[in-house]
Amino acid sequence: MHRPLILLLTLAITTSAVELRLEGYVPHRLDTLLLTREYDRISKTIGLTPEDNAGSLHIIFYRYYEQRKTGIRLPEWGGGGAIGEDGIVIPVDRQSAFYRSDMERIILHEMVHVALARAYGHLRIPRWFHEGMAMTLSGELQFEEQLFLSRAIITRSLVPLDSMERLNRFSHWRAQVAYSQCHFAVGFLLDTYGYDLIPELLRESRKTRRFETACLRVFGLTVPELERLLRKEMASRYRLLFLFADYSSFWIGIVGLAIVAFVATKIRNRHKRERMEREERDAAESADIGH
Questions:
Q1: Residues 97-150: pLDDT tens digits?
Q2: Of 83, 101, 122, at which residue does a domain stop?
Q3: Which among 122, 143, 168 is the end of a domain?
Q4: 291 falls within a domain
């Protein structure tokens, strides 16, 4: 249940004078203190300065049926959207179709997009990095991710990194694979290079004015080389997972094994019975000869 009220909240956080403005159908139990603390954490992790966060951040809650009237267009599977450096839109009556996140988690995801937009300004940042960072820094967990990746590897349907720019036009299934790849890519980089790479990548991007050049300097890899490395790593981890984790195949296999075991038992019992009958006949014939 949501109430149609306009709520204005202004809070200063330690590293940035950001001002959160919550507008529209603001949910009753929205934890605004959590949001401000988490935006502070996100800002620190990315390396934003107070100057980067000087402007207010509008979070607009609306009902999905108002989407056409408001001019907002989200994908059919989307649970929210970021608008440039100062806006987030969240439909209160419709969450993401495949990310089981609460309202705060969805807002945090979009906050990461806003923070990245503020950090990099007019520099072009690839969508795979945006989405991977948003999923990682918002703490989203998608337990089926590994299964999505495994299935995509087997069916040769992984999404090229440069195709992520058209993510909003993807189908439900293709979007699932794309988000899983983005999450894996950023997680792999953070596991390999550590969280210090994020502000370092920002500094190099601002210095060189190109994200791709910054990647080469920080990772020692071009983007195509990074993509080949990521695919190789995904394949080594998840190639066979889908075959073992697909529940329908699992149960079909169990039933098949049960049938084989049943038939084998029947055959073994028949042979045992025939052997016993044969031994009884041999014993009877021996007894007749003795008499």
A1: 555 567 888 999 999 999 999 999 889 999 999 999 999 999 876 667 888 898
A2: 122
A3: 122
A4: no
Contact 52, 13 (CB under 8 A): no
Length of the chain: 291
SS3 216: helix
What pLDDT does 63 receive? 87
Q: For 48, list phi and psi in degrees, rounded to 5.
A: -70, 145
More confident residue, 93 or 221: 221
Closest CA to 115 of 20, 232, 217: 20
Task: For residue 290, tell me if it sits in a domain.
Answer: no
Sorted by sequence, the CB contacts under 8 Å of residue 9 that are 6+ apart come out as 20, 21, 22, 32
Residue pair 200/46 in contact (Cβ under 8 Å)? The answer is: no
Please tell me the total count of domains within the chain: 3
Give 144 or 169, the one with higher predicted confidence: 169
Residue 9 has pLDDT above 50, yes or no: no
- 230 within 8 A of 185, measured Cβ to Cβ: yes
Range of the domain at 161: 123-245
